[in-house]
């Protein structure tokens, strides 16, 4: 039996999972680490915290599993995207990593757009200049910490720093590199034009691989440190969402998934490069060769429900504790008692501004139609429906790019709610599936490692044999018709408030 190791370097912690070649999770371990916010809008982490977590989780997983490390045929890496890791000539970290949710780079985004041109930037990188992307962070360090920038010899993404520590190689792969805003996404190579116009030395960047390609091997010192076998291959891996796509089998045209975590994502696979000229959705290289994915983002998806729970559901929290259940279970039960449309109440989930389809940092949350008849249960259902409408906004942009899909997978915390999955099915008008395996990104990069090691013939073949649907919730026709009425009204509210959001921001 061959085994494969998937390592997912997330924002809250690193999760390492050992899989058998049939995709079964044998052992897993997670180690958490802190997030630093030295100023409002800043978000940083210590790369060595990631490394220490990787070492600890590998050791713990090997100890739990009892598997001989010689039977582990490959290692795959997934991770939070967009983070900036800067190393000196000795491979030492120069400063904390500026991670994906940091928003300090507004001026640098303006600089990028001015130097390259808004339309040309989208043509090359498939995205407008966004504060979360890596290029703006590089320029921020260059503009504000020139003494650190002068010492910088290598620029890596979070998971690629772990690759360097495991193998000694400076490398990345196409899916994660797509989020740096330095890659020519249609051509899947670094963009000389962007690098030259931003005056970033190409030698700072690692070699770009496809996701299943072998990028290096476990070194002797790492083998001694972790218990892995020296020479075990490490493949390119993937950014978190691209890895999740492989781990959920979304590797063919016609397939898509919705994630309702803190933020919400609608992700669709395409074998043709498709770029939205308005920049409302991300187009990135995906982890399947010669394929891409389109991704729409709702900034405050699960966050909206958590906000409501934390501020208005203390009774449910206390009752759930006494019953030994999750508060969200009781909240679902309350939502089931409210009819579609929440008694004519709509919610706009713009607690953190919005990304898709309204790229607007000024946007804020709204309850529309609130009246004296409404109870907490109505507001609760309205929150879930509003997030679902926002996810449909993402879906409609993707479909407008002639990328169509016939099945949708539900992932993330929201995907575990049968109530929310039924909302998704009814609002989308599509069947919504859940899977037997819940490991997502870790399984995805383990599959990529298996392809690199020759355990599987291709990513698609591996997914066809490993990924299994557990449950399907089909749309209910009368619900679809009713939701379409509310969705049409929902789409009219933001345009009516756009100028007012701007005025509110200036107060």
Task: Spell out the key features of this protein.
507 residues, alpha/beta, Nucleotidyltransferase, domain 5, 7-stranded mixed sheet, 42% helix, globular
Question: What is the fold's blueprint, element by element?
Answer:
Elements: E1 3-9, E2 13-20, E3 25-32, E4 44-45, H1 47-65, E5 72-79, E6 85-87, E7 97-98, H2 106-116, H3 118-125, H4 134-144, H5 146-151, E8 154-156, H6 158-167, E9 171-173, H7 174-177, E10 183-184, E11 189-190, H8 192-198, E12 207-209, E13 214-217, H9 220-226, E14 233-235, E15 238-239, H10 240-247, E16 254-260, E17 264-270, E18 282-285, E19 292-298, H11 302-312, H12 314-323, H13 327-335, E20 346-348, E21 366-368, H14 376-400, E22 405-411, H15 412-415, H16 418-428, E23 432-435, H17 441-452, H18 459-466, E24 469-473, H19 477-506
Parallel strand pairs: 1-5, 5-14, 5-15, 9-12, 16-22, 22-23
Antiparallel strand pairs: 1-2, 2-3, 4-7, 6-8, 10-11, 13-14, 16-17, 17-19, 18-19, 20-21, 23-24
Helix pairs in contact: 1-6, 2-3, 2-4, 10-17, 11-12, 11-14, 12-13, 14-16, 16-19
Give structural notes.
With 507 residues, this protein is an alpha/beta fold. The protein folds into two domains: 3-248 and 440-467, 2-Layer Sandwich (Nucleotidyltransferase, domain 5), CATH 3.30.420; 300-398 and 478-502, ATPase, nucleotide binding domain (Nucleotidyltransferase, domain 5), CATH 3.30.420.40. The chain is built from 19 helices and 24 strands. Strands 1, 2, 3, 5, 13, 14 and 15 form a seven-stranded mixed β-sheet that branches. α2 (106-116) crosses α4 (134-144). The protein is globular and about 70 Å long. The chain starts with a strand and ends with a helix. The relative contact order is 0.12.
């Amino acid at each position: 039996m061959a085994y494969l190791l998937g390592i997912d370097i997330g924002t809250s912690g690193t999760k390492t999972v050992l899989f058998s070649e049939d995709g079964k999770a044998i052992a897993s371990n997670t180690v958490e680490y802190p997030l630093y916010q030295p100023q409002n809008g800043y978000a940083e982490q210590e790369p060595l915290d990631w490394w220490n977590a990787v070492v600890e989780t590998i050791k713990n997983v090997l100890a739990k599993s009892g598997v001989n490390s010689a039977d582990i045929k490959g290692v795959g890496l997934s991770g939070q995207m967009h983070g900036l890791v800067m190393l000196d000539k000795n491979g030492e970290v120069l400063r904390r990593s500026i991670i994906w949710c940091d928003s300090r780079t507004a001026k640098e985004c303006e600089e990028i757009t001015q130097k390259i041109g808004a339309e040309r930037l989208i043509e090359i990188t498939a995205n407008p200049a966004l504060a979360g992307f890596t290029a703006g962070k590089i320029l921020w360090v260059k503009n504000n910490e020139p003494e650190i920038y002068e010492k910088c010899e290598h620029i890596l993404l979070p998971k690629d720093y772990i690759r360097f520590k495991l193998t000694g190689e400076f490398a990345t792969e196409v899916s994660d590199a797509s989020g740096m805003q330095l890659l020519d996404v249609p051509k899947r190579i670094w963009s000389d034009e962007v690098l030259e116009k931003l005056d970033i030395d190409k030698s700072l960047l690692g070699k770009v691989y496809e996701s299943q390609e072998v990028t290096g091997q476990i070194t002797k010192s790492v083998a001694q440190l972790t218990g892995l076998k020296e020479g075990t291959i490490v493949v390119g891996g993937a950014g978190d969402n691209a890895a999740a796509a492989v781990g959920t089998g979304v590797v063919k045209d016609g397939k898509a998934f919705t994630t309702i975590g803190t933020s919400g994502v609608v992700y669709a696979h395409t074998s043709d490069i498709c770029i939205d000229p308005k920049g409302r959705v991300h187009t990135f290289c995906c982890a399947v060769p010669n394929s891409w994915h389109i991704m729409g983002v709702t900034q405050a998806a699960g966050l909206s429900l958590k906000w409501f729970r934390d501020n208005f559901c203390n009774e449910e929290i206390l009752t759930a504790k006494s019953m030994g259940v999750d508060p969200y279970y009781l909240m679902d039960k309350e939502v089931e008692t409210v009819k579609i449309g929440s008694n004519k109440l709509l919610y706009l989930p713009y607690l953190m501004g919005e990304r898709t389809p309204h790229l607007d940092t000024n946007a804020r949350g709204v309850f529309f139609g609130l009246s004296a008849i409404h109870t907490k249960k109505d507001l609760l259902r309205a929150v879930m429906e509003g997030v679902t409408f926002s996810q449909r906004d993402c879906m409609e942009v993707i479909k407008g790019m002639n990328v169509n899909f016939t099945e949708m997978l539900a992932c993330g915390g929201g995907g575990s709610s049968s109530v929310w999955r039924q909302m998704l099915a009814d609002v989308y008008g599509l069947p919504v599936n859940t899977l037997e395996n819940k490991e997502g990104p870790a399984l995805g990069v383990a599959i990529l490692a298996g392809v690199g090691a020759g355990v599987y013939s291709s990513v698609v073949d591996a997914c066809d044999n490993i990924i299994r649907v557990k449950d399907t919730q089909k749309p209910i026709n009368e619900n679809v018709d009713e939701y379409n009425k509310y969705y049409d009204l929902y789409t009219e509210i933001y345009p009516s408030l756009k100028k007012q959001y701007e005025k509110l921001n200036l107060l």
